[in-house]
Amino acid sequence: MIKKAKIQDMEVEYEVIHRKVKYARLEIKTDKLRIIMPLNYNKEEEIIKKHENWIYKKLSRIKASQEEANNKELNFLMTEPEFRAIVLLFVENLSNDLNVKVNKVYFKKMKTRWGSCSSKKNININIYLMHLPIYLIEYVIFHELTHLVEMGHNKRFWSIISTKYPDYKKQEHELLIYWLLVRKLIDTEH
């Protein structure tokens, strides 16, 4: 069930999801706030109040990115076979740079992320990535391959990313902008 809360000058839609977790946590995917809470814990107002500044900052950034997305377009010229070949070439070259071995590369339509990396050294790539500029495709591949060196998004991980992308925050921001465009595409497909 979608609920609403007033956070500073913003009305925020959120949903509460109860799971077998020890602590409550917040997730913001595009412009929706999700509160993951332990079973039988129903104090979402306290959680929202405690993290009000963080929520406001994140949603303000997304709102500004939505405005930037109005000035961008997805690329529909690349074919899926071309995209697969480019990704595999990037995986080969970048895995050599990082001195890592990839088990398999899978291509999937994903609704929440550009890619992922498993502990079995498999890389999953979102097929919607084919609609982005080549330099962002390369960045996502490097990002996922870096997880073969460091699984978490911690200081060491970002240090490795910054060896190739000292301005990685710019790429991360652009990925958010393009994600907002891809979400519209996904919504029209369903």
TrEMBL record:
Superkingdom of origin organism: Archaea
Domain YgjP-like metallopeptidase: 86-175
Name this protein carries in UniProt: M48 family metallopeptidase
Native source species: Methanobacterium spitsbergense
